[in-house]
UniProtKB/TrEMBL annotation:
InterPro entries: Hemerythrin-like (IPR012312). Residues 4-123 form the Hemerythrin-like domain. This is Hemerythrin-like domain-containing protein. It comes from the Bacteria. Pfam families: Hemerythrin.
Length: 133
């Protein structure tokens, strides 16, 4: 049986791979726009897993409740910015402003995923993960 965190880490790996692919393809290409749509779809699914599985479990545990609230609040702001970027930048043509916005959005997403892997997921594993025994 695969744990929630293992699934979420796998989603991170998929997102990282698609971001690398997108960087190589470029936002202004047809292939890049298709990849951007795939990244958006995967990020939305990942956010749903956080909202419906991860944060509720962490909020039910005293040792992780505050951490879950902190990360969920932060993610509300970040996800609004990311989805705005995805929805506004999947159009043909490219510009320097679009490239900068892409760089900021991707940097923010990568930083967030790294923080989840370093702090959030270990806390879940320690305090919330059901025993597989």
């Amino acid at each position: 049986m695969t744990s929630l965190i293992d699934n979420m880490l796998d989603e991170h790996r998929q997102i990282y791979g698609l971001l690398d692919q997108l960087r190589a393809e470029g936002l202004s290409s047809e292939a890049g726009r298709r990849t951007l749509a795939r990244v958006r779809q995967l990020v939305v699914a990942h956010l749903a897993h956080e909202d419906h599985q991860l944060y509720p479990a962490m909020r039910r545990t005293g040792a992780t409740a505050a951490l879950a609230t902190e990360y969920a609040s932060e993610m509300e702001r970040i996800s609004a910015e990311l989805l705005g970027f995805f929805d506004g930048h999947g159009q043909p043509g490219g510009s320097l402003d679009q490239a900068r916005a892409f760089g900021r959005a991707i940097s923010q997403l990568r930083q967030r995923m790294t923080r989840e892997e370093i702090r959030l997921y270990p806390a879940y594993r320690q305090h919330c993960e059901p025993s597989l025994a």
